[in-house]
Amino acid sequence: MKTTVKLFVMLLLSVGSQIPLSASQCTQSANSCMPALSRSGTLRETQCPASDLELAPALGLTYSVYISPPEEITRAHGAHKVLFDIRGRFVPSLPVIVPFVKNYLKPLNCAAMLDGAPSSVRNEEIATQFGQESTESLQQDEKSRGATSQDSADLIFADSFPGGVPAAVAACPSQGCVIFATSPRVNRNLGQIDPKAKAITIYLGPYNFTVDKITLRKSLKIVGMGASGGKSGSVPCRVEPCNGTALHSVNPSNAVFVIPQLDNTAATNVSLSGFRVYGAAGNTDQDAFFVDASLLFNSGLWYSTLEDIQIFDFAGVGIHLRGPNGNFGASNQWLRFNNVDVFRAGAGEALRIEGANFQLHFTDCEFDGPGIGMGTNIFIGGYTGNNYAWPFDITFRGLVTQGAASAVQVDGGSTISFHTAHFEKLWGGIQITLSNNTVTQGVNIEDSEFFGDVGVNGGSGYLLNVATSYVFGIRFVHNQIYGFPDSVISSTNLAQVVYRDNFYNAIYFGGPNVPPTSGITTQLSPSSTLNIGGAHSIGLNSSTTPIAIIQSTLGPGEMVTLFMLGGTATFASGGNIALMGLDQLTIDGSITFVRNDLTGSLQWTPVSQWSPNQTGSSAVSNGSHNLGPQ
């Protein structure tokens, strides 16, 4: 039987204006067909291996592929012609197309037809190659192949089903399939999609789809044509057509994306990319994503990626990740968010992470509010009702957050980092609170920038506000401060905040001589064991109680300076302080110790002392080494 398949490749040239090229040529040598297509030549059918198609992405080529199957396939399945239309940028389908082609030909007949000519001319040429058959007949043949073909059971075209994608999901075999919803004839109502146990990949065309609910399950992949474009007349879409894929919710009563509420049923290896999501008209508290594992065991969203997604018009939360509050038996974990943008429309946050969530990484994401002074863009903390479980290992790299009263509220969590973030149009930057009695420890704000319209609010603005002392390891380092904030850092005593190596632009433009801060320097009353945490400067209240032990998280080489706020304080030997042979040392000025690990239990060595009782130029010189009684 004749097993030759005719393949027609149309190259879509995007450099400059599309100029009709005369032809392209395929050669017989391996790995040379696609490179030849980029050169001008004479249009003719030649022999070239199907594997050459795999070179197209590397060459930046886009194309449409038309396949005429062998007679035995058409006779067996009633499809006179099979049409694969991956016109434009839909290159991801190539790995699916090529294996299908390889099953039936080696080598194949191929002819290159360039996209520069008018569509009517191209269609006429295609029809000639297929024996004067029209493009319309090819489209009819495409519909006639149905979803029951044994040879394409793992490739389903949603426009073959009046019910569209949900019907294609139902027709998908038990092991899974790839569903194409890229044809302009496809039913644009996605309805409710639940792949259950099937591993399904769905490709969505550059259209506006309506959607009720999508249940995220193991290995579900939804790939759109990009989150570009937008509503007609908007900034990214001033002139029609608007490219990309959009999902419009039609049900304000539920979130668009959810996970199964079943134990031991984690939604793993989910991948979502390339689309916009719009809230239902008139919604008042609708979430776009509500990934709720709070009542589950061994479940949640795991090992998954969201990329190139934009979210609009949800009055609830854009991305809502909720885990248990009383245990870590379930969680949302090992998740990556790349180029995900949420624009708040109501009181809900753009991003809310509460309860047990682990290893969440946000790269180049934007979480914005509707305007300065309006709500909070990001919440990270415990889930109300119990303080046993909390989010931890959360990173933001390249975050942009704007237009709110507060950019971020952290109300419990561990190891949370903001690196190279951008803050703009905000009354407050990052606030750390304790409303659910959940501890916060290890928050890093570093190498980030705060624009001049951040932290200005009639005296109550801030870049960082630590409203509780029940926090540990808060670091504000290497940041750029461009404006005149009411407060760079407003903290609470004992909060253990580190402020270091930040650029404060205001001193060059008539601002305060030093960045306005409060609560960073720790104030303590002496006791026999003095716990200074990670503080490098301590203000001491007056006391006669000798200090014999200094507890601290500082490492060898780090120093701490203790100074009197009035009166005197006494240090005593017998603990972990080396007083160089003295039994006691009383100070009325300041003293600096350096931490070391060479002298056994004597871990603190004094390196300088200053006393106000000495005067003149000798006060600093003599006081710097005078360890005797004053």
Cα radius of gyration in angstroms: 33 Å
Task: Estimate the strand proportion.
Answer: 35-45%
Going by helix content, strand content and strand pairing, the class is mainly beta
Net shape: elongated
Largest sheet: 17 strands, parallel
Secondary structure: helix percent: under 10%
Number of strands: 46
Report, as a whole number of angstroms, the end-to-end distance.
109 Å
Q: Regions with pLDDT < 50 over 5+ consecutive residues?
A: 1-151, 615-630
Give me the number of helical elements.
8
Mean pLDDT, as a whole number? 79
What would your notes on this structure say?
This protein is mainly beta. 10% of the residues lie in helices and 36% in strands. The strands form six sheets. The chain has a 17-stranded parallel beta sheet that branches. It has a 15-stranded parallel beta sheet that branches. Strands 2-5-1-3-4 form a five-stranded mixed beta sheet. The longest helix has 11 residues, at 119-129. It is elongated and about 95 Å long.
Supply the key terms.
single chain, 17-stranded parallel sheet, 15-stranded parallel sheet, disordered N terminus, disordered C terminus
Give me the secondary-structure topology.
Elements lengths: L5 E4 L23 H5 L8 E3 L7 H4 L5 E4 L2 H7 L4 E3 L9 H9 L5 E5 L6 H11 L5 H10 L10 E3 L6 H8 L4 E6 L10 E2 L5 E6 L3 E4 L1 E3 L5 E3 L22 E4 L7 E2 L8 E2 L2 E8 L10 E4 L8 E12 L6 E4 L9 E12 L7 E4 L2 E7 L2 E3 L7 E6 L9 E7 L2 E12 L1 E7 L2 E11 L7 E7 L2 E2 L11 E5 L4 E7 L2 E2 L7 E2 L6 E4 L2 E2 L12 E2 L3 E3 L4 E5 L3 E4 L8 E4 L6 E6 L4 E4 L11 E4 L2 E6 L8 E7 L7 H6 L7
Parallel strand pairs: 1-5, 6-7, 7-9, 8-11, 9-12, 10-13, 11-14, 12-16, 13-16, 14-17, 15-18, 16-18, 17-19, 18-20, 19-21, 20-22, 20-23, 21-24, 22-25, 24-26, 25-27, 26-28, 27-29, 28-30, 28-31, 29-32, 30-33, 31-34, 32-35, 33-36, 34-37, 38-40, 39-41, 40-42
Antiparallel strand pairs: 1-3, 2-5, 3-4, 42-45, 43-44, 45-46
